[in-house]
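User: I've been going back and forth on whether these two constructs are worth ordering. Before I decide, could you fold them both?

Assistant: Sure. I'll take them in the order you sent them. The first construct and its structure tokens:
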Amino acid sequence: MIQSNIDNISEKQWTELSKCNTANFFQSKVALHFFESVGTEVFTFALEKDKEIVVFLSGIIQKEKGVKAGLTSRAIIYGGPIISENAEEKNVLEVLAYTVSYLKKKAIYVEMRNLNDYGDYKEVFKKAGFEYVPHLNFHLDCEDEAVMRKRMSSSKLRQVKKSLKQGAEIKEAQDQKEIEAYYAILENLYKTKVKTPLPNLDYFIRMWKDKVAKFFLVIYKEEVLGGIVCPVLDNKVIYEWFVCGKDGAYKNIYPSILATWAAMDYAVKNDIPRFDFMGAGKPDQDYGVREFKSKFGGEQVEHGRFLNVTQPLLYKVGKTAVKILKSI
């Protein structure tokens, strides 16, 4: 039977889920409680067999406010579902079918943004109406600092050293004013370059206060020049969720590079074996961010995304609107 109340999942079952190869932070109890706490609509489906949760899937429904809501409502399953080794194909198919049935009137499309390898389940997803969409990412091995440095681009490593020598510092956020300063830089980045919706300031303040993620900031002359927001999964993986920097503000200070280095350095010092860059674009499209991320020495992987369009006409209209907004 499929259940939708995470309060019915025991601590032992959560622990077992975290040990699965497809476990990720965004399918954790911490992440779900955070999304609910900031008013995001959350959905959760778990299939139990012999007292074990063999398939777990959760996500959020995102939409813009007002008249745009109908054209922008989408169901995003960050990270992809957790699938136990004891799950049968029929179990996975049952949860996927239930998910689509539940969401078909709530969202224009359902998208799984995979952070792990689901290659063995492609056919199951296809049977459930999901199309595989190629999408790249980088996974960086952080187990050995010397090896990590060696794999990193010499120019990027040099820029890290220059920034630190010049007096730039990396530290964890200590007060709300620092979060506000970081957010101002991030908001400007999204308005001028990224051009996709960004959660409001309260979202980040709540994330910081509740210790949902690490906030590493780049400080120079007592000014916040950038930073990175990094959730951590059970000291197994650290994720680059949001990152920004006021590059070019000062000579020989490289905030964006230093912010990324902050997560890498934290991983090494805290025995976290993997740094997940959380996306590097589509393989058939030029993407400057992918070029930037590739310089840090990670392995390029293609775990892709799974897409199920529940309302084709609205999806087409919405997709066209997004392209227009990004081109402005």
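The second construct, handled the same way:
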Amino acid sequence: MELTFPHQDEDDSVVSDCESGVSGSGVVVAPPPPPPQQQQRGFFVRLGEGDVVHDLIKTRFIRGLGMLGPKTEVVSVRRNACSDVVSQARLHSFHAHARAVARLRGGGNHANVKYAWYRTNGEDDVNDIVSQGFGFAHGPKLVLSPDDAPLQSARGCGVGKDGVRHALLCRVILGRSEIVRDNTEHCYPSCEEYDSGVDSFSGPTKYIIWSNRMNTHVLPAYVVSFRVSSFKGMEKSEEEPLRPTSPWMPFPTLISALSKVLPPCDIALISKFYKDKKDKKILRHELIQRVREIAGDKLLVAAIKSYRDNKKKPSFLQSRSKNGLATRIK
């Protein structure tokens, strides 16, 4: 079931309180002031407890985390205020692209606009995305989670020193989707017939938006700030990262192995993220998340398995020694 809000009209392709800032003629007008129970700070209006939209998003988010839901505290739900001219222009552009995709794919509701979650690296990343849009640092494609399955995006969120993570709830123009495998080498649709990618038609857990459409087909609408008591396999804080306990291989060796199968643009991006990690610009789990999105889990597992298998093979002298054939050099 798709996330809908009480004020949503069935024919409305984009649902956001900041839509009131764009008139039917396309003229940008000032949005109305927030109600007393909502507090605006920076790019966002904070929704208070008891607000219908706040409670709906909070409930949906907690429920979508499954067994981790009871361990999760939602600190705040904030709405993109769209209060400046640039934000209004982005909103108007999103509407225009939704209409264009709908016409291109047969009219009606064929723009296929959905809500979806996107993981962020922290408060600064949230502000950068809302003010500047998505950029090179976000990779050759955006991977978002359906609104009823936020776990993957929540796990990928960077954690601040206060233990708070931030996930964006976005409106996404999917249009006509194609199946995209985890180990895809593509940075763009397979042909002009498709607008986005999914990992499954029947029960998608990933929405893929390509880099050339990430700033026209994705509109950040809300940000959910939350704490979770534990995420297995993730850093607990910026100060005390967990040590890897799963199979691993030296990162330069991994890059070398991936360079044999991935396009140069992907390798350049992975190398950049690795350098950012060494320069302490990003955390280890952020590096891993980026590499997983670019290379795909299947390819990474195969590369690590091949590395470990080669490490287990005895050397020539070791083999001869075991057979009693090695000679001692005097």
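Notes on the second construct follow. The chain has a mean pLDDT of 79. DSSP finds nine helices and ten strands in the chain.
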